[in-house]
């Protein structure tokens, strides 16, 4: 009974033991290494045979080409093929003085046929030479296309030429299953589409017939390739923008129907794809910017931003409730809010630049110290950026040129802002030190340009920068409150 159990256990172990499949070159390398380790006594005698029996040479189907690994010589061959191809294209592009048109055409055609014929003949015996010849043939094919365009004076048809080149390259890429040709062929295809459809102000609707084919090719022929998927979506959004968003007249309001359709497409078919959702929101905010923010500035003067007044609260609710407190959406909505404030001030016919900047400065100060708990870090960053940029600009006199007064408001702003920054420095906040350093440099530049020789001004300015740099670094290392306001 014990012997029967032992036999069953050995049978089960053999059944579960599977040899690791390796290529012949890997098998021979392992065999040499195991023999060497046995010869120097690192493993027991005859153990090399036991170890090599754990591996089995993978059989390669005659119909399936074995994967070819790149080595230094093969890389040189590929580079050489590319250089030869570029030489052919350069030859086509230049003016050939010594040959007639038929002779030029014949040379290129002969080179094309020779390259493809040689590549096919050497495919089994010398695969890398075959691949190099295929590459040369692809470049010869492209040169032939552009030369035919020159012969028949087909100027302005570069898009068609690129598409024809791509259609001649991609079948070869699928036949060889060659990654380089895949990349080159699809690059030609999308470049040709860009040149043919998007150089005009309004792209043709033919692109809408082509896009489903491109999506199907990426899904079925290229095994759901994500790069092609995103490229196709990029073409779709580019078509929508060029056709509707940037067009004049009522055509732009087609976007009111298109954008909900894109969100529905994402919700029902591509809900796991975050990039499509991001693209939809980018398109939405771009449309809002073009029509209800920038459009008001470029349109009728004094128009109240009524659409933004309604949209902004809705967008905040969508970002907070439905998009799980999205930080990017909150940032976009905050920027829209600032634009709404500026547009409202324009509607009220406020003509002094200093007033606009002063209101933004106050907003920056407030949100630097008071933030919503769900967006604390972002609001603090926005607050520091707004108050610092506007605070520095408000210390320049030209900001107040439209205000008729003898009071140096810019100087008062500079003094008050310096007091606030010195308070931050006193509390040992790093941002306070940085802001105070910039403020010192700002006033130093004004004074030095008026009262100092340039050489002395540059020398003192350099010393000042070094001292401020040491001060900032010392504060950074020894700060106690980690920049918390």
From TrEMBL:
Keyword Membrane recorded: yes
Record field: transmembrane: 72-93, 105-122, 134-152, 158-176, 181-199, 205-222, 252-270, 277-297, 303-320, 327-347, 353-370, 382-401, 407-426, 433-450, 456-472
Domain DUF2157 stretches: 39-181
Highest taxon in the source lineage: Bacteria
Signal peptide per UniProt: none
Keyword Transmembrane helix listed: yes
Pfam families: DUF2157
InterPro entries for the chain: DUF2157 (IPR018677)
Keywords from the UniProt entry: Membrane, Transmembrane, Transmembrane helix
Name under which the protein is recorded: DUF2157 domain-containing protein
Species of provenance: Peribacillus saganii
Lineage: Bacteria, Bacillati, Bacillota, Bacilli, Bacillales
